Amino acid sequence: MQAPLDLDLGAVRAFVALTEDRYFSEAATRLGVSQQAISKRIAKLESDLGARLFFRTRAGADLTEEGRAFLHHARSLVGLADQAVDLLRSRRRALRVDVLDTRLRTVDLLQAFHQTVEDVDIEILTSNGLRSAHGTLTRGSVDAFFCRVRGTQNEELRHIPAYLEPVHLLVSRDHPLASRQHIEMERLSGSTVWMPGNAPGSEWADFYSLLGSTFDIRIDTSGPDFGWEHFVERIGAGEHIGFGGEGLRLPWHPRTVQIPLVDPAPVYPCSLLHHRQNHHPVLALLTRFIESNFRPFDPARQWLPAPDRAAFAVAPT
């Protein structure tokens, strides 16, 4: 009978980091070690396993077939180790929540949750959205992640619908639509809406692209993106019109008007993601709070992209 192999967790962690970063130098920076140390750890892991895990290309280190087979298990090992350490260090550490941007409605939702529980700390983090979710949740550097979910997610992650946020139109006070209490979507047909913050490949850029194609609206993503202050300033100057969520905390500008959209009302879908093996005690409380306050999609008066409708059609159970 072959003796069990004791894997070096540091080597496994180096393997996962190199898989995600692709370059030895970047993996070394992430782990706070030298590039040489990463190389040695990978070499030791390959020696222990008796398999080559990477091959080098101009674009960095790519996984071999053996490396791809090992990746899922390696991530699980690192994730479980991190969770075990966190659990023993302190069961009372702050719940780390990624909200994408602190101006979004998610922060209000977390504030409302915080008022319902006693002696709970929440640490707010920001990122570039869904593209960061799998890595940070698997590593345990984040406990919960709010974003729009699209595509097939790793089975290690669970997501539940959190809220649907009505989309509003932003215009200058001199705009012909500025005096209206609400605006029917058909009135925007043929318009160009400026959204410089729609990062290519992001889940929110995809949402607004689908919105634009459905209602014959051109989404202008030209930049540069100088931030929210610059955005509302250009809207107020009458240079553009824009979209923003109902709960978005935009910087105040005297010449910018925010108007609800109706018939149908476009709503942006936001979900809560977390790792199935994350047992932070506050995460369970947050999940129950989200589920109890969720309001399902109403197809009679709201609009969602087709891929989002099934998840938001009924309340989570």
From TrEMBL:
It comes from Thermomonospora echinospora. Gene3D superfamilies: Periplasmic binding protein-like II (3.40.190.10), Winged helix-like DNA-binding domain superfamily/Winged helix DNA-binding domain (1.10.10.10). Residues 7-64 form the HTH lysR-type domain. It comes from the Bacteria. Keywords: DNA-binding, Transcription, Transcription regulation. InterPro entries: LysR_HTH_N, LysR_subst-bd, WH-like_DNA-bd_sf, WH_DNA-bd_sf. This is DNA-binding transcriptional regulator, LysR family. Coiled coil: none annotated. The keyword Transcription applies. Transmembrane segments: none annotated. Belongs to the LysR transcriptional regulatory family.
